[in-house]
Write a structure and sequence with these properties.
Layout (H helix, E strand, L loop, with lengths): L24 H17 L21 H12 L14 E2 L8 E2 L2 E8 L4 H15 L3 E3 L2 E4 L10 E4 L4 E3 L4 E6 L19 H10 L15 E4 L3 E4 L13 H8 L6 H20 L5 H4 L2 H9 L6
Parallel strand pairs: 3-8
Antiparallel strand pairs: 1-10, 2-3, 3-9, 4-7, 5-6, 9-10
Amino acid sequence: MSGAASSKKSAQRRRPGGSKGQPSRTNLYLVGALVAALLILVGVRFLSTPAAPTALDGKPAPASLVSQLVQAGKNPAGFSVAGGGSAPYTVATSTPTLDLGGKPALVFVGAEFCPYCAALRWSLIIALSRFGTFSGLTYMTSSATDVYPNTHTFSFLKSHYTSPYLTFLSDEIEGNVAGSNGQYPLLQPPTQLEAQLLSQYDTAPYVQATTSGGVPFVDVANRFIWGGSVYDPGLLAGLTWSQIAQQLSSPGSTQVSVAIMSNANLFTAGICKADGQQPGSVCQLPGITQLEATLPPPGQ
């Protein structure tokens, strides 16, 4: 079974509905009172509150920032970063390969409010940039009122991806600002294909039972499944888009770069195995071939 899923009961694994797993208001009030008392004791005169979503949310990510991610993905040193990634669950080889447009398909289902989706997107964008080209990526932060608030990331909502090797299908189900009823706005209801994949693979044994039934979810050609957290979003706490991208310029030099790059390499290895090892300039690199050899055997 994949180690990708987190055991935390938060919105990371929720499809449209309530804000499952969030602390009760009573507990929040009790915690708030304790914190207030502590701050008074140390002479602090005000309390900090979760920041609102940034003004940049939904705005186009600049080409310079996207280029930093592309260059990080192409950096030869980045392909050898390992040790901080979550291996996928592998599907039985008797299952038909998922192809769209005559190419193997990678399907991502996430939500803009979700901090675990936020963390995963950094790795997925880097991996996919090794096989094709993105346009239309936008700035995004995870929910300001969920765990790991305001995790800086991107959204696939308005993006386009082209590749001669694979088809990328993405779905951002919900937005990142909850309404007065506690619900996040519906952005892209799952398509019939996505609903079928979620029903079939977004459950045990393909993902951990404690996190089945929600997002993030990644299916690489019905061969490799990732569900849930691939690394701790807390590593990105307090970091801006530029600060995260800057750390990726030196792959493996920080915890952030190890987490993002090692998972990007696992996604890359899965894609290479699914698309017939194309392109060779990526799939034949020692770091990727070594990772391919460590991927779990096909499930039964």
